[in-house]
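Holo model, NAP. Inputs:
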Amino acid sequence: MANKFNVAVVGATGAVGRVFLTMLEERSFPVGKLKLLASKRSEGKHISFLGQQVEVHETTASSFDDIDFAFISVSADISRQFAPIAVESGALVIDDSSAFRMLPNVPLVVPEINGSDVEWHDGIISIPNCSTIQMVMVLYPLHKVNPIKRVVVDTFQAVSGAGTSAAMELTQQTADWYEEKPIKHEAFSEQIAFNVLPFIGELLSSGYTEEEEKMIFETQKILHDKSISVSATCVRVPVHSAHSEAIHIEMENPMDLREVRQILAAAPGVEILDEYKDGSYKLPTPLRIEGTDEVYVGRIRRDSSVPNGIAMWTVADNLRKGAALNALQIAEEVIRRDCR
Ligand SMILES: NC(=O)c1ccc[n+]([C@@H]2O[C@H](COP(=O)([O-])OP(=O)(O)OC[C@H]3O[C@@H](n4cnc5c(N)ncnc54)[C@H](OP(=O)(O)O)[C@@H]3O)[C@@H](O)[C@H]2O)c1
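Output:
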């Protein structure tokens, strides 16, 4: 394989795209040519990369000529439009959207878990939903040792998970609230400032929302195990970055809490932060965890409502491990396995 790779970033001006560019820098990804792409609205803007101002261009059918890796972080509709063109042009697409995740010929990869799945791609590799990634990062190491039968998860998802305009809406609504101005909403169907919204995505015939079904079916695909049952309630909260999750796991066999901690402490990409001393807690919170790469776990305890139950609290940066970092780790895995 080449030493350097020509990279296109579609959605370079977006919440994930911007973090992705900092990850390329931080992890010294071997970038040859870099193409920054977005919509027509962003044509001519500049974004800094390794000290240079790189111009953004409109994404078109010819954007992918001579590109090795196309990292796509746009809505599912736009991904469906451009990913096949990028593949046709010879690029390997690593896609952040939900467009291709459940297709049988598209690997859905969290490198710490199913990195070898990158080997059977057909030109597109998907990254899972941000809330799924952080949950499977703690499920997988336990599941390997003691099969997990059932998971009940409640999420507390940051507004940046819904994109740049959603993050700006929280800031604007908060300012308007204090200035007693009328509160407008567009990115969310109701006011998010000083509120929580117990629905993310469309409501489906199952009674779950789209986001909740992603957590169910993506988990089974990543863990290669359709027998794991998952029930999720996904909630948007007025937090800028980093998603939190309360996870309740039912395992096949009893497991000592000390062993649970040992397994999680040894799992790549997972950090335990579970301190209680002199009446005060040091636990994962969005403000503490924002900007980091690991999935943080705290409040590890027995779930006494079921046999062999464990409960825990996790927080991870949705823009990093939940999106940009996971996408880049996939590319690193592809390079390592020489399977572009
Ligand atoms: N945010 C997260 O935490 C997160 C986590 C995991 C996965 N994802 C997924 O990642 C994708 C991007 O999310 P985001 O949060 O970064 O959204 P975002 O902040 O709204 O950014 C959207 C990006 O799409 C670009 N775009 C819009 N229309 C386009 C077009 N016709 N052609 C080319 N580019 C176009 C925008 O460019 P302009 O600036 O020119 O409009 C912008 O760069 C989504 O599929 C999302 O579900 C997001």
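The chain has two domains: 5-128+322-337, 132-318. Residues 132-318 form a domain with the Dihydrodipicolinate Reductase; domain 2 fold (CATH 3.30.360.10).
Archived with the compound record.
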